[in-house]
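Usage

Read records sequentially. Each one opens with the input sequence:
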Amino acid sequence: MIDVRDGVISFVFANEDTYLLPNLVEMDLYRYLCYSLYEKGIKYIYILQAGADGYYLSIQSEEAETMLNETKLPGIRFLGKYGRLYSRDRREKIDWDCEDLDQLIDSKIPLLMSQKSRVAVIFDLETFNTVLRDDSSETLNTYIGMMDRAREQGNAIILVGPIQDSRIHNVLAGPESVFRFCDERGHSLCREMREILVDPSNPPLYKEMKRRLGSRCVWLNMFSRDNVRTILRRNSLDNTSLLSDELETGNLALLVSQWYASPAFQAKCGMILGENRFRRFSDLRNDLKKADVMFGLRKKAKEVLPAEATVSQDNKEWEKSYVGATAENAVTDALRSVRLSRTMNAGEELAEVRTRLDHILELYSSPRVNDAPGAIQTDIEKTVLSITKAADRGDLRTVNAALDVLEYAQLKNFNFDKDTIKIWKCKTAIVTVTENIARLNRLKTEDKFNITECRAKKQKIYDQQEELQFKTPGLDEYLDRMEAGLPVDYYSVIGQQALEYCRLADKGNKVQDQLKAWIAKYTYHMKAYDQEEDKLDQLTNASRSAITVRAVSVSDILGEVGSMETEQIKEADKSREQEMYDIKQSIDQLSDAAMSTGVNYVETLRRFQQMKKEETGGNQC
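and closes with the structure output:
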């Protein structure tokens, strides 16, 4: 839980939810925070939140109200019960001895925190930033000035922000964030936060907050093993049919916490629980109240926990719980859908890809202090789309290439110079090339299948002809007479068999034309595939260092890559159209007449015999 001993300002990230104490008592968010502060020895607690008509000050006890009234500040006194509404609109008449809430914020709270011991004021994060930024710089300087004294007194300001809210990142790190400013002495509201925000390396914001602030920065919505165990115990009290012994409760808690924390483990177990994207304890409690869900969990625990029971909970659960700066984060949303994909085949390579996906997701779940430049962000979004499409096709090569791009952006902290921009372009071009290679490989596979199909059809025709020759004595001599142009009787029994033979020959000619077309397509796709592999080698070498980039004239490569996909698609389409036209022409020529005269049959027969001679002579496709 939060520890306020090491500094005045602490951060709590949590959604409005129900929270369970170890003794199974259920509380809402702010009561839970107050309880935690009471546990730390803080008696005087005040909550300031934004309301529909102004700002709502909640005084948590009569002792706290008395202390607030006794804090000497001329012209200010609070009367009546706590939890009343104070307006910040100076024009609105209010029935208080206080002129308005500005005086409370501007003077009362700083004085209270610098003179009295063990006081805590809980602000929602947006309200804190708004009231200090909207007022004059004098108010902000007043708060900065009282920090040292408040720290000596052991007092605290608790700032509460929701999880997965696009506004919070801007409140913390945006250009108007109060944490960016310092007074004329160089002092700031929160030294650690200002150091993060002015760090030129553009570090990951939430990781740095956790590293520098430690237990003064907490995420409450964590499905840790202990939290899940508490939920299971509470559910058992509510419904005795859900009762489990301590060993089974511990195993189920481990299964649930690991399922939400590990994408690889989730893929292994399947969808045994709801996604619970916002990590709400109330939603998890409702899931774990369902008999069918509990039955499935008990069954799955017996299947997977013998091998997984030794997996320890790491100390980064806050990262897995805090799933991004915003629910609208397209990068993390798309990566989550990829890592849950069932389309890839199992294997060592797939396991490596899942591990890399987890790593990249972790990097992008904690946004940088500064956002990526627009052009880089556009490339990142295109790359994520490539990952999604490649994962659906099972194209791990492209997935790996795209993950390289995402990882490089984070390693460079979105800060690019001339050389790293060249490398960046090479890496993004590699993704395009690997996509082309995968596409050409699919086309080659289709071509080979069609070639095999055509050859099988040809062989079937040969077999039918041999069977016909075996059943019809004298058929060979009759066919020879036809080929020589001698008179024959087409209406005789043997004549009808000869015509059937010629019909088979006609089918064989058509199949041969199709076979030639497929072989031509395969040759074209094989050549294009080899060219793409060569370009991939060049780009891979060019992406390794800025020195290599300059040496190989990467601009020439990038110029090719920029247009090659469009050109190849056009060429492929054009080639395909020509192939289809050639096939159609061949079929039309062979089927042009109803073969009602001997001449048509003779021409068909001669062509077919020539084809067989070519094949027996070693020219078979």
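Summary fields computed downstream for this record:
- The chain has 25 helices and nine strands.
- The beta strands are 9-13, 18-20, 26-28, 44-51, 54-59, 85-86, 119-124, 156-161, 217-219.
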